[in-house]
Amino acid sequence: MVLEIYRVTQAFPKEERYAMTDQMRRAATSIPLNIAEGYAKKGSQKEFKRFLSMARGSSAEVNVLLDLSKDLGYISEAEYERLKTENAEVGKMLTGLIQRIGEESNISSV
Fold first, then answer.
1. Cβ neighbours, 10 Å, residue 104
2. Does domain 2-108 have CATH number 3.30.1020.10?
3. pLDDT at residue 25 above 90?
């Protein structure tokens, strides 16, 4: 998804280079970076969950930026639908992983 965000934002107006383009790219990139950082600290389930929650927050940020991009005419309806669907899938995977870690934490504390 990050690569697609980079590709799509290349066509944004130049005046958005340091505003929406940069923000959308940082939010999209933040998702896998938080997953990786949390996984590296996997010794603590609580810490891993915290990083996954931050990744989910970045996914929500991407959603808002996609809405704005469509409303401003920076992306087509087709691109919007494709990226929203892809981002929703990322969000579902993160939510599932967070729930699974929570269940494992409950089991290990019994």
1. 11
2. no
3. yes
